[in-house]
């Protein structure tokens, strides 16, 4: 691995500290070169050699940088991704990609024009739980899937200390924040739907942003329900998938975020390993015999995404997350808000 990609991160809050810097730091194909940090000095304390800028435009002017991670508040994604591409930088942008489909289309066209990589950090594709669900479906263990339900529930009665998440700006709320994960997973498993129905609400006291949603994605012979609530103390299984010959039930069990919050690095032993009590339940028919067993999980690893980014930039390999996929997520979010507002199914 001879090429080293010098990388800058646009913010050093939780996203920068937990989901990006550790992977850039550990992977020998990258150098954590620069970061934007306006008031604190956490980045330099943890990474003494990093250059610290106080604004995104100042960092984008750094000619050394080849890759920029845009992990700022959702409503700023379009502005900063556009500026980074115009500065000649490859870009990773946090989910949600943009606030509108039109913004997504503009950025995809600009990246193509500039011949630069534009990728969206849909990291939950690399969770251990999602990986085993995809494996079960790819092996046809359930037969034709008729119904699927995917949850991302939390119990967070208090409003977030991250003020930008609780202000009614474009792109805030649970559907953009967590729904983008669920929609992306639904599209990866089942493809683009024909229509969507949605119920999007505010349920926490004093909340200004949506914190509950239920979406139904309509396919020919399949319905996929995507659900999230911030007031679920005792959560249901995150994946409930039912086919003509069997079912698969799985909790959300990926431990990478917890490991990162404890300060572990992605090259630590047992990274992303799932405990046996978290294994998913498969109940199906194989070779004419009923099978009911717990399936061992597959280790989650967000480094697979970053390694894919390296290969895409250094060796012209495929983009690990095509921005068109992320544009489709935004397309469904927009349709879901319309559905919830008008109380009807919206064709896609």
TrEMBL record:
> What sequence ranges are listed for the domain Gfo/Idh/MocA-like oxidoreductase C-terminal?
134-348
Q: Which Pfam families match?
A: GFO_IDH_MocA, GFO_IDH_MocA_C
- Alphabetical UniProt keywords: Oxidoreductase
Q: Establish whether keyword Protease is in the entry.
A: no
Q: Where is the Gfo/Idh/MocA-like oxidoreductase N-terminal domain?
A: 5-122
Q: GO molecular function terms here?
A: nucleotide binding; oxidoreductase activity
Q: Indicate yes or no for the key word S-adenosyl-L-methionine.
A: no
* InterPro entries xref list: Gfo/Idh/MocA-like_OxRdtase_C, Gfo/Idh/MocA-like_OxRdtase_N, Gfo/Idh/MocA_oxidoreduct, NAD(P)-bd_dom_sf
Q: What does the sequence similarity comment in the record state about its family?
A: Belongs to the Gfo/Idh/MocA family.
UniProt name for this protein: Gfo/Idh/MocA family oxidoreductase
Organism (species):
Chitinophaga oryzae
């Amino acid at each position: 691995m001879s090429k080293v990609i010098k990388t800058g991160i646009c913010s050093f809050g939780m996203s920068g500290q937990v989901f990006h810097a550790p992977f850039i730091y550990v992977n020998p194909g990258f150098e954590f070169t620069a970061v934007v940090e306006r008031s604190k000095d956490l980045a330099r304390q943890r990474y003494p050699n990093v250059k610290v800028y106080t604004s995104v435009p100042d960092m984008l002017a750094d000619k050394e940088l080849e890759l920029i991670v845009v992990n700022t508040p959702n409503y700023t994604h379009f502005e900063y991704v556009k500026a980074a591409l115009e500065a000649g930088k490859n870009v990773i942008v946090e989910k949600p990609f943009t606030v509108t489909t039109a913004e997504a289309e503009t950025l995809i066209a600009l990246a193509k024009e500039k011949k630069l990589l534009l990728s969206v950090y849909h990291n939950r594709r690399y969770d251990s739980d999602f990986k085993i669900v995809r494996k079960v479906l790819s092996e046809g263990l359930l037969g034709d899937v008729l119904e699927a339900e995917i949850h991302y529930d939390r119990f967070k009665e208090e409003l977030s200390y991250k003020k930008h998440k609780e202000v009614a700006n474009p792109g805030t709320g649970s559907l953009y924040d967590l729904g983008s994960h669920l929609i992306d997973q639904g599209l990866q498993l089942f493809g683009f739907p024909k229509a969507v129905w949605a119920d999007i609400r505010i349920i926490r006291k004093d909340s200004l942003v949506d914190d509950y949603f239920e979406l139904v994605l309509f396919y020919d012979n399949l319905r996929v329900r995507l659900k999230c609530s911030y007031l679920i103390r005792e959560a249901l299984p995150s994946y409930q998938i039912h086919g003509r010959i069997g079912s698969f039930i799985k909790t959300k069990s990926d431990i990478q975020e917890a490991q990162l919050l404890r300060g572990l690095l992605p090259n630590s032993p047992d990274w992303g390993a799932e405990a046996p009590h978290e294994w998913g339940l498969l109940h199906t028919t194989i070779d004419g015999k009923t099978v009911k067993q717990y399936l061992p999980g597959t280790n989650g690893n967000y480094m697979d995404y970053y390694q894919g980014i390296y290969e895409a930039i250094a060796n012209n390999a495929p983009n690990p997350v095509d921005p068109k996929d992320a544009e489709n997520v935004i397309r469904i979010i927009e349709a879901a808000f319309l559905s919830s507002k008008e109380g009807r199914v919206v064709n896609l």
